[in-house]
Write the structure tokens for this entry.
Amino acid sequence: VTGDLVARCVAFCRAVRERGIPVATGESVLAARVLAAVGVSDPEDLRFGLRAALAVRPEQVRWFDRLFDELWLAAGETPRTTTGMEAPTPPPTPPPNANRAPPVTLDRWMRAPDASAPAVVAFRAASDREWMIGAEPPDLGDTRAEFRRLADRMARRLAMRASRRWRPVTRGALIDLRRTARHSLRTGGDPIRLARRVRRIRRTRLVAICDVSGSMERYARFLLQFLYALQRSFAQVETFVFSTRLTRTSPLLDRGRWEEVVPRIAREVKDWSGGTRIGASLSTFVRDWIRLVDSRTVVLLMSDGWETGDPAILGAAMRAIHQRAGRVIWLNPLLSNDDFAPVTRGMQAVMPHIDLMAPCHDLAALERLVRELWV
Amino acid sequence: VLPEIRQIQDVMEREAYITDREIATAVYLAISLGKPLLVEGHAGVGKTEIAKVLASVLRTDLIRLQCYEGLDATTALYEWNYPKQLLHIKLDEKSASLDQREHELFSERFLLKRPLLAAIMHEGRAPVLLIDEVDRADEEFEAFLLEVLSDFQVTIPELGTIRASSRPVVVVTSNRTRDLGEALRRRCLYLWIDYPTLEKELRVVRARVPGLSEQLAREITTFMQSLRRDQLIKVPGIAETLDWARALLVLHADHLDEALVRETMSCLLKEQNDQRVMDQRLDEGRLSAMLSLSS
């Protein structure tokens, strides 16, 4: 392969990187080796070869074909780098919903459950056409003590899962044959000193993402107390809230008393009780925080699923989360309602990517959740 | 087409594995550049099959490591044979110094080679190492695997470092139940196998189920193509197509009709819900539509 070709290949790799496939610099070496192995006599050989070297995900495979057409085949001698199609950026986020429910200030909302609320309330849902009649949630009041107890139980549960890996111990029920054999050498093969082993403990992490938009107003206080309690009893938990945009609340929740925490959150979370943009908020989560999620993480989403944005964006974000997470649980307060069916477009997009949907409208519902916290 | 790639395609087809140029090119590069090949795709599109065919084409051994959650070094790499070690100590009490005995005890004789070590210590022609369904193992194992794949050597404290005399051809498959790390992806050549086109599937059926009439083969594959467009919970792959074709062959069918599809549906659709959907389609008299693939 001539030096010219190698230069062209390196330039092509750079162009591919600029257009959205994260090719490391070192991989141009691999690309050059591919070039040397398949030659340039048949461009299709080169396409499949370079694709195997540079595109490492199904989405990238499809995108690579277009880039190859454009940057290698059409470009002739020198590949262009910045013309033509744009890289696959996520579709533009829709503007926040204009016709949302009248804003509720967090301060008013934090003070107490609204005593004057009617027994049956109509939730003004996110989109114009979607209305939902739901039963008034029971008086949630101040349940902090019970939450504390519940959160402790959850934390214990999350910290106690046995792994399949072993760890040596001095006392234990199970004998570690490998180490016992080793020890027995000193005693002429008689296993005098028995080595023991136990299962390692497998730490589960929890990421909770809570919807605090207008339609979730009645539950958000309740859920936030729950998150607060969780955060206090369990170190490996991250919490987020969103309405039209995502805010990480773990640093806000994990210090101070509840009374101090509330104004802090009021200051930080600007769009409390606003419209709902679940998809956009979760896309932000995927972009900025997905590293918090791995196969040992339970992702807890709390939302009624009224989405104003494009359900496709929501679906894509949920797919990304589901792919990495050990378990995805969607807590939906509306689920307590017998007539509830996940028919909104938002919920439809979400259903294939969750492992469990559970109610979360009262304490009993959250109690039942304890059993589901495993990966 | 490069003659070498054409040749790979030909020999794989002789083993009744129908390839296209994409697969043949990736396989050719995996062999000639000595890089592991990561194969992803839906269930039943023939990912594992690649490794098997490759081993028989290269006339070498296939060493298979089936991954599962909690898979660790003792099951993937090596373990000492304790019962044998203990027995040996008992039978050999008089012999030399402690050092010598220890040396003897932790020698290759007492080593149980698990798949990864077996691949590294393999004598003769480089074997094909299949690491199947790597997405089922956890991230820790992935990191460990990365280490092994990068230089094909392992260090056993009692024995020292063992290096592969000839680099195995490595095929790693994943069903994407978990997203693999970027590091592993970038260490490998990547091959995505999609559901086959009508032409390819027809060729696979002809190659794998000889004796099937041309018309039936055509009907089966057309039906499968339309089936995959439906919103199914578990979309059938080529493996299911072949199961179905074999079942129909045994039943001496010569063309598809409603009753036959109903009777044999369980070969294709493994979810009760999907079967119900199919029943509904048949009730609506949609079979002929499914057999005449529009666009």
